[in-house]
Amino acid sequence: MRFRSVSFWGPVVSLVLIAAALRFLNQELSHVSVGQIWSALSSIPRQGIGLALALAVLNYMVLAGYELFACRYAGVPQPLKRIAISSFIGNAFANTLGFSFLSGSSIKFRLYAAWGLSPADVGRITIFTTVSLWLGLVGLGGLALLLSPEAAHTLALGGDILGAVLAALPLLYILMSTRWRSPLSILGFQIPAPGTAMAAVQVLFSILDWGLSGLILYVLLPGDPGLTVFFTRFMLAQLAGVASQAPGGVGVFETAFMLLTPDAADNGSLFAALLAFRCIYYILPLLLAALTLAVREALETVPVLRLLAHAGVRGSATMVPQALAALTFASGAVLLLSGATPSLAGRLLWLKDHLPGSVVGGSHLMGSVIGMCLLFLARGIQRRLDVAFHLTAVMLVLGMLAALLRGGDYEEAIVLGVALTLLVVNRARFSRHSSMFSDRFTPGWIVAMALVLTATTALAATSWKLGGQADDFWLTLTTDGSVPNVVRAWAGAGTAGLCLAFMRLLAPAPYRPAPVGPEDEACVRGIVAETPHTRANLALLGDKTFLFSQSRESFLMFGVTGRTWVTMGPPVGREDEAQELIWQFRETCDRHCGRPVFYGVPQDRLHLFWDTGLSLLKIGEEAIVDLPSFHLNGASRQGLRYKKNNLEKNGCVFEVIPPEGFAGIGDELRAVSDAWLSLKNAREKGFSLGRFDPDYLARFHTAVVRQEGRILAFGNVWTGGRTELAIDLMRFVHGAPRGVMDYLLFMLMFWGQQQGFARFNLGVSPFSGLETHALAPTWNKVGNFLYSHAEDFYNFRGLRAFKEKFGPTWEPTYLLAPGGLALPGILTEVAALVAGGVRGMVGK
Predict the structure, then answer these.
(1) Which of 147, 399, 487, 670 could be 370's S-S partner, Cβ–Cβ 3.0 to 4.6 Å?
(2) What is the pLDDT of residues 553-587, one digit of tens each?
(3) By three-state DSSP, how is residue 689 classified?
(4) Distance between CA atoms of residues 583 and 606, nearest Å
């Protein structure tokens, strides 16, 4: 019942106050016609209206600052975009409709709930912003009561006491925050302690908020009552308007301000300024907020519009950087072309009267240098480089300053300011870490820059010619005898040093992978142990970097060579996290200007990559033996049976040694490995192949063939869960009986049968199985040529024939990479990575 009483009498009191205010305004303006008010509105200078609009924008940015710190206070920090939308819509409705705790908060709850915040979180945010708003209001209102002669005359001693109490409340709040440590609980609802720093932020932002809103009216008023007098009147009128709870203080605020301004020469002009203030600070933001809210609700409720919006966002990912690059280039051209023409005489005289000549002249030179830098930086903006973003923002700010100081060119400053605003708004699009000079400038960029410089030189020459100084221009441009040679030398050295420093600042940011710690290694080993694919064991080789999913139950392993980032196979781990990992890898490559390559992708995993936009290249076929059906019977396996019988007759035996037994045979295996490398004139490789590394080999079972106790051949055994079996490193000694490697393999297959494995992976046969048709893609023709004629470098056909003896099923294997002219360079870098360097590409 008490709540119903409050909810009933609150609006009633507001309506009474509004009616009284309207009656007063009617009396005060009874002798003023509508035409006079409209004339007063029209007489407000455009500069004043423009400045008021700019101050309103700045004021709503400060209100967004409320929201930013409120989210941090509530423990639910949000992206700046969400905060800006919520703050603008909520505050525009609350300021205009009144009852801010209900109107603005209900809208914020609608928005934040859609973003996953709980009602308790929204409540804490609302409490923080509401308390902040009132801190500034009562503090500045109290100061106004103390300073205002009108308030002192009306309230006498009571006004001073009330003013002192109100002015002291913000200071008391900050003081209390130093002692307030534990959360305040009200009916189970927890209100955290703000802390001294956060309390001071609340007071500061609230003072900025009320101060900026007052300045909006101040620049619109006819005459100048003085800033101190104006703010005392403004804050007292705001106190009356907010206390009335009338929507936006409508009528009450205007009445109070006019009562406090008895010295107004023209009530019509004063009312016109108040009307313009209400339109700029209340009505216009409300209309924009309502439109924004309507568009957002339409996008949320109409699926077709939501799809179109998402398509637009995806399209803007490429279009916006292009547009910003063009705008940056145009800004540089404007500064250069403007610097080549004389400044307006009136503005230049005013600057010379108020500034030293060195400042004006230096600003002229600075503007041209900045213009040239912007031409270069536009290329980096097009490529979305983070270093280009930061440098461009700095150059635009300096360019605005130079435009104003060298000739009062505020039009140029506005153009550069718009470019800066659009650039800052799109900050998130610039996430690439690289050098602006890691790629060459395209012919189009070079031609465009040359045209701007040519136009600048021609415009400068024309300007000097019109002034009758064409000969002096070219003389000064080449050899001006009045300029000492030492000055030219220092100018040239300084310019060269500036260029070198600029290029050094934009030097490449090399990718430095984070070291793989014990926790990461344990995570990788756990995932590899569960996967059914034996190729995942390459993660244990120690030469790769890992990209983990959020759950850390999946990973991608990759290596970086040059600008090419190569994964070894598809993601390992949970299938439902594979696509997210692929896109996470692509985004990481994009941030570092890397070229993503997925190497060794089997056919049954290609569906994960359809949307990546990468070119698909078949690089060979993988030999898979079905273990349950494997045998040595029949005419096709006669050769294998002969080798088995012959080797066993000569005393050869097969054995699988568990990982814990590796220490006892490690030295002997190294001798076998060194002998094999010497025999084959080969070198250790990596990435997609194992190498002789005791730490790596000790993780696996080792299959060996002995003769009279001596190890003739060995191979480390990969297991894919209890599904797949494979052999990685295969080596034998010089003089070993013929067929020893065949014997090692088929005996390991029989061992796998006994252990219950389903298949045996014999690995990839490079360039085999490519299409030989005359209309086949160029890549297939190149691969077939290498397969048939590159025996001096690698025995491609012999490797396939060796694996064919075991009757495998051949499954295609693919490489996915960016296409176009970059593909040859990418394939070269992939080959170098797999071969262990460029030297390994041309040798065995």
Answers:
(1) 399
(2) 999 999 888 778 999 889 999 888 888 899 888 87
(3) coil
(4) 14
Asked whether the whole model's pTM tops 0.85, one would answer no
C-alpha distances (whole Å) from 546 to each of 29, 32, 249, 480, 560 are 76, 77, 60, 62, 11
Q: State the residue for tokens 């929201």.
A: 67
H or E element, residue 191? strand 189-191
Tokens 């009396």 identify what position?
Answer: 27
The pair of three-digit structure tokens given for residue 265, joined into one six-digit string: 């020469």
Q: Quick check: 234 and 214 in contact, CB under 8 A? A: yes
Distance CA(385)–CA(182), nearest Å, equals: 45
Cβ-contact 687, 557 below 8 angstroms: no
Low-confidence ranges of the chain (pLDDT < 70): 1-41, 97-110, 114-115, 148-160, 187-188, 244-249, 263-268, 297, 299-318, 339-362, 364-365, 406-407, 431-513, 769-795, 821, 835-844
Distance CA 116, CA 396 (A): 38
- Helix (H) / strand (E) element for 486: namely helix 485-505
| Structure tokens that stand for 441 in this block | 């400038």
d(Cα 214, Cα 280) in Å, to the nearest integer? Answer: 12
Residues in the chain: 844
Task: State the DSSP code for 117.
Answer: -
Per-residue pLDDT tens over the stretch 220-266? 887 777 777 888 888 888 877 777 666 666 777 878 788 777 766 56
CA 82 to each of CA 85, 317, 800: distance values in angstroms, whole numbers, following the listed order: 5, 19, 58
Q: Are 62 and 203 in contact (CB under 8 A)?
A: no
Task: Categorise residue 128: left if φ over 0, alpha if ψ from -120 to 50, beta otherwise.
Answer: alpha
